[in-house]
């Protein structure tokens, strides 16, 4: 009995911390593997500066196919800016999407009207002993007229110490719903628009009109992205600015 009395404050503290958690910290696990994890997050737990930017309830559950998940995610590209130059690349590999597509479909069918899905994917197309995994995280939800996706990290490199442990690689920073300048952002593409927040386009928040979903088709890559991944960047010098576009598979010196 004395032992349980000693443990009681610990249980109360854990319960208090869980009740106070918000955003990605308030998630409930649905599925996970060595490569991805999918969670539900309650609408009233997400961090918002403008409550009106996100609907109070959603059009859930939602029916999408694995192929449509590939159509939605497979063509999205992003830009990463640095002092060395700019790199344009796809957010996801085709194989990466297919790893989590089936469970994402199931997760969308399980969603309640007051929940969003949180997806964390880590992927390493090279899978060599010297290559790193990269992590991408996003919310996805449905309204009466749209499918909306809000990205957090985009192909964020994970350290060797973190990539093998689920509790490490799934520990992500919160995903902001507000617009703010970032050096990494999604490039405009076909089939979606950017959500306006506070009068500015949030380049991480994508809105897909449901009436146009049938037109979305995954486009096969012109260049195998593994070849792009194997490009040698180690010889970049501060006085040489380089732009790279994965669509064309070329390096451009400026």
Automatic annotation (TrEMBL):
Q: Does the keyword Signal apply?
A: yes
Compositional bias annotation for Basic and acidic residues: 234-244
Q: What UniProt keywords apply to this chain's record, in alphabetical order? A: Signal
Q: Where is the composition biased (Acidic residues)?
A: 245-254
**Chain positions covered by the region annotation Disordered:** 222-254
**Coiled coil where?**
none
Instruction: Work out whether the entry's keyword set contains Signal.
Output: yes
Q: Residues of the signal sequence?
A: 1-21
Question: Where would you find the membrane-spanning parts of this chain?
Answer: none
Q: What is this protein called?
A: Lipoprotein
């Amino acid at each position: 009995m004395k032992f349980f009395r000693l443990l009681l404050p610990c249980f109360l503290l854990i319960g208090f911390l869980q009740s106070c958690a918000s955003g990605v910290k308030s998630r409930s696990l649905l599925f996970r593997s060595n490569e991805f994890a999918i969670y539900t997050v309650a609408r009233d737990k997400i961090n918002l500066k403008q409550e009106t930017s996100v609907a109070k309830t959603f059009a859930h559950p939602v029916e999408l196919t694995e192929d449509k998940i590939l159509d939605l995610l497979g063509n999205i590209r992003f830009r990463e800016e640095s002092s060395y130059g700019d790199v344009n690349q796809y957010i996801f590999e085709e194989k990466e999407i297919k790893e989590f597509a089936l469970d994402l479909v199931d997760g969308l069918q399980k969603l309640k009207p007051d929940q969003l899905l949180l997806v964390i994917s880590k992927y390493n197309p090279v899978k060599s002993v010297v290559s790193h995994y990269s992590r991408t995280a996003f919310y996805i939800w449905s309204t009466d007229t749209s499918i909306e996706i809000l990205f957090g990290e985009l192909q964020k490199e994970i350290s060797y110490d973190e990539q093998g442990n689920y509790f490490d690689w799934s520990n992500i920073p919160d995903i902001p719903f507000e617009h703010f300048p970032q050096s990494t952002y999604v490039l405009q593409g076909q089939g979606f628009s950017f959500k306006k927040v506070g009068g500015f386009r949030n380049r991480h928040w994508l809105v897909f009109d449901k009436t146009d979903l049938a037109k979305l088709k995954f486009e096969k890559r012109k260049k195998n992205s593994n070849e792009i991944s194997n490009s040698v960047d180690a010889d970049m010098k501060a006085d040489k600015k380089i732009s790279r576009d994965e669509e064309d598979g070329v390096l451009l010196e400026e």
